[in-house]
Specification:
alpha+beta; 4 domains; five-stranded antiparallel beta sheet; 10 helices
Length: about 475
Amino acid sequence: MSVSGPTLSSTGVGSGLDVNAIMTKLMAVEYLPYNRMTTEISSYKTQLSSVGQMQNLVATMRDKAQALTNPSVWGAKAVTTADAAVVTGTGTPSAVAGNYAITVQQLAARQTAVSGTFASSAAEVGAGKLTIEMGSWDGPPATAFTGKPGSSAIEVDISGDTSLAGVRDKINAANAGVTATIVNDASGARLSLQSTNSGAVNGFRISATETADDGNPATGLSALAVDATQSGAPSSITQWSANARASINGIAVESASNVFEGVSDGLTVTVNKVSTTPVNLSVNADNSAVTTAVNDFITAYNAMNSYLRTQTKYDEATKTAGPLQGDATMISLASQLRGVINEPSSASSQWSMLSQVGITMQQDGSLKVDSAKLAEAMKNPDEVRKLMGNDGTTTGASGFMDRFRDLGSRVLASDGSLEVKEQSIQERIKNATNRQASLQVRLDQTEARLRAQYQALDKSMASLNSLSSYVVQQMAMLNANG
């Protein structure tokens, strides 16, 4: 902020004084309270930034604590396979731990049919209608076709572009459960038709009705008909639709895809290739999810604790204090965090303190995890879960992560200590800024008044100097004439 107004070029001409230098020094004194307010506002803004960062760190700590109260973390299952090339699996928390011997007799397949040969994809097929039905064949060899339950025949109008490529595009646009492509080789172009989905019920039958029927089933649109019960049909089935078939612990199972969902409570099995040799699939508790969640919480907690210490400490070496040094809100928060750790919990029947499962508080307030001790405790995961995440009716009966979560939510609430602190600092900034604005008005008035006074003095001095010069001149003349 400037401590002087615009320079007046005439000031000092009559008096010979360096008025601008005098004004600068006078206004520097006047601006001392203003500059103190600037420093005060800057300090408040630094505090506000520190509180905002503290809120973010507390929120992260709270969320990581919340994650450790989530049942899915504790109920996670790991599924391992003796041969991933044959079979893999995934498990939900409801999956039952155990071993499953799996053999694979057949993979799921999609029906594929190929037409006779055309000269090229531009060859004219002819106008008419194709009727596509989804369902299952009783073969091979096939004697009957059974429509898919809940499915209706779809008619595909073949008009306009009636080339082989045009027919392909119209079939694909119909979304009838069949995908069409054109295969080109040395003998010409053929239309390849394949079920969109695998499974025995996703086979298909196609009948053709030509606008101008020449009576020859091997030419025109009729050549694209697919019917396994008709011998010598121009379009032949090269791959039959089929279910995947496997046995799990000696029990035969089938699936329309290669994924067997829910074959056992919470267990999904995916088969990848045929194998008559049993492959073992093991389902066990996945403690790695808990370990990861614990380490995530420790990281978040320590980041929050480190920042809290930095912002509230006094550095003896530099004789400087952190922005929030001595702040009651921060002192209270640090005390509450220690209180969460130090109060025993009755949630678990086996342990009452986090240190008993490998999580200890260090001298600087940070947390440290003993991985080996935690792994040993996780042999009884249910009791560790209670110690961490039991939402008791009293603090003493609550798990430690529930306490940390609740503390974080409490101080971050609209009426929580960190929010109230933020609002208080914002109010101080507002008040100090208003006071500074009012002071600026008075400083501008003071500068204008002083400049006016020095300008008047300059004019008076100029007049006196002129009179003095005149008197000296007259006396010199008298002395010369005398």
